[in-house]
Amino acid sequence: MIICPLSTIYNVSKNGKEYAFRLNLNVYRNTHHSILGKAKLSYKRELLALNPHIKTLRYDKPVSLYFVLYKPSSRRIDRANICSIVEKFACDVLTECGVWDDDNDEHIISTTYITGGVDRVNPRIELNIK
């Protein structure tokens, strides 16, 4: 299992100022590519710090991904809005770390998003690879 941050805001520098980047599709589609690049680097550092075992993982056969969302509150949210961007960022990190050869449809055959419940103390997404 890989723990993916959910409620974290990634702070990246923009013209010497801090810029808060939230992981969701609405922010992603409206963000300049240079900011996205910085946000991805911040995400990679955080994901690897939370999951040092990632660098030891290797999958040679096609896999299915299961993203389980633990929300910070019982408020209704668009699960795919969040999970889709977490999937994009996490799969890019896993590909860079050599977990699989590529994150295309030859290597990842399916993706499932599930709501696991509410965790006010530790909201997150758990990624299970099968």
Topology, element by element:
Elements lengths: L1 E4 L3 E6 L2 E6 L2 H5 L3 H18 L12 E9 L7 H18 L11 E11 L5 E6 L1
Parallel strand pairs: 4-5
Antiparallel strand pairs: 1-6, 2-3, 4-6
Question: Which structural traits does this protein have?
Answer:
about 130 residues, alpha+beta, 60s Ribosomal Protein L30, Chain: A, four-stranded mixed β-sheet, two-stranded antiparallel sheet, 3 helices, 6 strands, about 30% helix, about 30% strand, globular
Question: Would you kindly provide a written description of the structure presented here, covering whatever features stand out?
Answer:
This protein is α+β, with helices and mostly antiparallel strands and 130 residues long. The chain has a single domain (2-129), classed as 2-Layer Sandwich (60s Ribosomal Protein L30, Chain: A). Helices cover 32% and strands 32% of the residues. The chain contains three helices and six strands; from the N terminus they run E-E-E-H-H-E-H-E-E. It has helices spanning 25-29, 33-50, 79-96, and strands spanning 2-5, 9-14, 17-22, 63-71, 108-118, 124-129. The strands form two sheets. Strands 1-6-4-5 form a four-stranded mixed beta sheet. A two-stranded antiparallel ribbon has the order 2-3. Helix 3 links the parallel strand 4 (63-71) and strand 5 (108-118). The longest helix has 18 residues, at 33-50.
What is the molecular shape? globular
**Briefly, what CATH class?**
Alpha Beta
Based on CA atoms alone, the radius of gyration comes out at: 15 Å
Name the structural class: alpha+beta
Number of helices: 3
In N-to-C order, the SSE pattern is EEEHHEHEE
- The beta-strand count equals 6
- Tally the structural domains: 1
**Helix coverage percent:** 25-40%
Low-confidence spans: none
Main sheet: which strands, in order across?
A: 1-6-4-5
CATH architecture title: 2-Layer Sandwich
Roughly how many Å apart are the termini? 10 Å
Q: Give the mean pLDDT.
A: 89
Strand content: 25-35%
Q: How many strands, which pairing sense, and closed or not: the largest β-sheet?
A: 4 strands, mixed
CATH topology: 60s Ribosomal Protein L30, Chain: A
